[in-house]
Amino acid sequence: MDTATRLLRLLSLLQSRPQWDGAELATKLDITPRTVRRDVTRLRSLGYPIDAEAGIGGGYRLGPGGRLPPLLLEDEEAVAVAVGLRAATTTTVSGVEEAAISALAKLNQVLPMRLREQVAAISAQVTQLPQGDLPTIDGDVLTTLAAACRDTEGLHFAYRTHNGTDTNRSVEPLRIVHTGRRWYLVARDRDRNAWRTFRVDRITNPEPTGIRHHFTNPPDPLALVAEGTNIAPWDLVARILVHANAATVTRHIPANQAVVHPIDATTCELRFAANDLAPLVTQVTRIPWPFEILDPPELRTAVQALAHRLLNA
Predict the structure, then answer these.
(1) Fewest CB within 10 A of the end CB: N or C in the chain?
(2) Do 164 and 128 touch, CB atoms closer than 8 A?
(3) ∠ at Cα 266 (262, 271), nearest 5°?
């Protein structure tokens, strides 16, 4: 390999693993360890931070900061990235649309014709269902929250509650959950000493505290968001005993429609909510397994009335 090709290959290897032994790199590149050291020096001069440690357990690793390394993508990866960028051009995260369009233009410029045709064919057959008037998410806010979740670092931010009250929150973030329509931060509220879900579009001015935290027994973020969005805001909650395995029920009933709680290997409890009986009756009629209505009593009455009406028809 010529020097430029070898440097690109060396960068690709350093991105693929956290750490490489010098002898391993020499073998992979079919060069001597001395040439590896020279190439590392060349890459450093170009702005790529490469850390090196001598001795047992040492080696080379690509450090943080510096220039963004070039991405070397396989054909399937390039197609996946291009299709993903096209989808990102219609996201609700502010600032991402323009960045996605810019990145897609750069990628299309270097894609081989055969791959460009694949991307065009996929995009031509995919149509996104309109999501209605969804709130826009600030991209910088989302990035700050994601970094705090990754680094297990506390956050302070201003938060507007569902009734429009402005509050200040101090939290220990766990995970960001996207339901397909909205983004939620799952975090432990320090002041209330309880787990909470926060709509990201209602968060402003998030600031890391510099204080790290550790969770010993955190809740399931998906279950917490499902509980907060599917159950808590509604007046009537249906509790259904379903004679089927919880995993089976979860595969057929998505988390944005109901909350599934396993009881044993063959039964589970299904909960969903609404502000009146009619949607609950509709949900019950869609359950394909044997079930019993536990609560509320008026739901049992409404379902029995519907059953009699259908039998008479």
Answers:
(1) C
(2) no
(3) 40
Considering the entire predicted model, what is its pTM?
A: 0.61
Segment 194-229, tens digit of pLDDT: 999 999 999 999 999 999 999 988 988 988 888 888
Give 200's DSSP letter: G
CB 184 within 8 A of CB 225: yes
Please list, residue by residue across 146-170, b when 16 or more beta carbons sit within 10 angstroms of its beta carbon and e when fewer do.
eebbeeebbbebebeeeeeeeeebb
Q: Nearest to residue 145, comparing CAs of 168, 175, 117?
A: 175
The 10s digit of each residue's pLDDT in 273-310 is 988 899 999 999 999 999 999 999 999 999 999 999 99
**Helix ranges, 152-245 (H):** 221-230
* Nearby residues of 9 by Cβ (< 8 Å), 6 or more positions away: 1, 28, 29
128/169: higher pLDDT = 169
Cα–Cα distances (Å) from 76 to 81, 84, 85, 114, 143, in that order, read 9, 12, 14, 12, 27
CA distance 160 to 166: 5
Count H helices and E strands in the chain, helices first: 11, 13
Q: Measured between alpha carbons, how far is 45 from 35 in angstroms, rounded to an integer?
A: 15
Helix 75-88 to helix 113-124 angle (10° resolution) is 40
What gap in Å lies between CA 170 and CA 42, rounded to an integer?
46
Structure tokens at 256: 């944005």
Query: Is there a contact between 207 and 141 (Cβ–Cβ < 8 Å)?
Result: no
Query: What strands, in cross-sheet order, belong to the sheet with 183-189?
Result: 194-199, 183-189, 166-178, 153-160, 203-212
- For the purposes of burial, counting CB atoms within 10 Å of the CB of 210, is it exposed (0-12), middle (13-18) or buried (19 or more)? exposed
